[in-house]
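Example (one chain per record):
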Amino acid sequence: MSSENQEVATPAAQPEQQGSVLSGDPTPNTPETNVDWKGSLPDDIAGDKSLENIKDISSLAKSYIHAQKLVGADKIPVPNKYATDKDWDEVYSRLGRPKTADEYKFDVKDVNQDGLKSFANQAHKMGLLPHQANEMVKWYQENVNSENQAKDVAAETARTEATANLKKEFGLAFDQKLKAASALAKQYVDAKVLDAPMADGSKLGDNPAIIKAFANLAAKMGEDQFVNSSGPVFMTPKQIDKQIGDLTAPGSAYWDKNHPNHTIAVEEVLALREQKNSV
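Predicted structure:
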């Protein structure tokens, strides 16, 4: 056979040899492929909206486990807009509302029991739980106490200011005027009216205008019948000024050294001025 007719055998392709794990020549990575796990499901199930956010079998398993844990749990359905009062009563009861309003317990003291009972009835109607109702009552009482303290401070401040102003106006006659005014007011006006709070927190009986009005009225009616006192009777600064004015009027003995009453008039004026300045 000639060389021209001889066929050269081509060696068969050998599979690429892969190194072993120990040789350090790793096997080439197989490209990942995205598998639609819903592909094997019927269309009506695969298209269910509840599966939209589940991306793989692992997520599906987690969702299933969570759902199984909820099976048998005591669940409370949320009433819709068509729910009746009876539907809501069922919800309130299952949440822990007492069976009756009388079962509420309040951690407060010195409160109006009728008002507290009225609140308990309303709380029960609204479906409040025991701790919610108790906290609301405590909050309310704290606010009322704060308001009362503020009113007491305002009343005391007003009383102090009124006393200072009246002492300045009445002078040494302050105690005498105040006793007369108080006696007259108590005789004709109920104590509840005198103690009635005003807008600024002060009491009606502490108002300087009211005190002055009763003091002036007592003076016109005769202070002696309202003041039981054996001590000296004092004049107000205005009364002192008027008497000094009368004693020092032009042509009076005060200005005439030869007048027999000159010395008496001068001494009386000096005494009146000392009384006024001693306030």
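Caption: The mean pLDDT is 80.
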